[in-house]
Amino acid sequence: MKFTQFDLHDQVIKGIEDAGFEKLTPVQEESIPLAIAGKDVAAQAQTGTGKTAAFLISIFSRLLASELKTSNNPRALIMAPTRELVVQICSDAELLGGHTGLRVQAIFGGMDYDKQRQALKDGVDIIVATPGRLIDYFKQRVFAMHRVEMLVIDEADRMFDMGFIKDLRYILRQLPSFEKRQTMLFSATLSPQVMELAYEFMNIAEKVSIEPKQVAAEKVEQILYHVSRREKFALLNGLLKSEEKIERMLLFINTKAEGERLGDLLEANGFSAAVLSGDVPQKKRMRILERFKLGEILYLVATDVASRGIHVDNITHVVNYDLPQDREDYVHRIGRTARAGASGKAISFADEETVYQLPEIEAYIGQPIPSTMPIDEDFCFDYKRVARRKRIPPTVRHKSGERPQRKPGSRPRQRPTKKD
Question: Which CATH number does 220-379 carry?
Answer without folding.
Answer: 3.40.50.300
